[in-house]
Amino acid sequence: MGYVLRVRLASFFAGAAVASSAGLYILYKDYKLAHHSISDQSNSSEEGRYGHSLLAKAFDYFAAMKRLHDSLDTRVSALEKLKQPETPRQEVEATEELS
After folding, report:
1. What's the pTM value of the predicted model, to 2 decimals?
2. Do 59 and 38 have their domain in common?
3. Would you give per-residue pLDDT tens digits along the chain (99 residues)?
4. What b/e sequence results for 31-42 when a residue is b if at least 16 CB atoms lie within 10 Å of its CB, and e otherwise?
5. What per-residue confidence (pLDDT) applies to 26?
6. Do 2 and 38 share a structural domain?
7. Domain carrying residue 97
8. How far from chain centre, in Å, is Cα 63?
9. Contact residues for 46 (Cβ-Cβ < 8 A; gap 6+)
10. Both 8 and 25 in a single domain?
11. What would you measure as the largest C-alpha separation in the chain, in angstroms?
12. What is the DSSP string of the chain?
């Protein structure tokens, strides 16, 4: 009985080791692929990794956000102009009590 248990435990640990090494190999290959992809993207840009193209994209993004903010601000102000001034409820209730 002890021999069978020992063989089962040995095969279990051998399978775990093989699965672990296969998983680590796949992770290593995935890491290398991602590293090559990122390095190719940074090398293909003309200005380098932190060059003018990145700065230009940031300025374009902020300009677009400013235009969106201004558009929303004009819409809100137009809606506020359409809003009718409401009489406060306290004044209405006070005048009804006096009558």
Report:
1. 0.39
2. no
3. 788 999 999 999 999 999 999 999 999 999 998 888 888 777 665 444 455 677 778 888 898 999 999 999 999 999 888 886 665 566 656 566 655
4. eeeeeeeeeeee
5. 94
6. yes
7. 50-99
8. 21
9. 53
10. yes
11. 104
12. -HHHHHHHHHHHHHHHHHHHHHHHHHHHHHHHHHHHHHHHHHHHSSS-TTSHHHHHHHHHHHHHHHHHHHHHHHHHHHHHHHSPPPPPHHHHHHHHHH-
Q: How far apart are the first and last CA of the chain?
A: 102
Q: What CA–CA distances, in Å, run from 20 to 29, 32, 93?
A: 14, 18, 78
Q: Per the structure block, which two tokens stand in for 66?
A: 């400013």
Report the number of distinct structural domains present in the chain: 2
Q: Which residue type occupies 65?
A: M
- Residue 74, both tokens: 């004009």
Structure tokens at 41: 């993207």
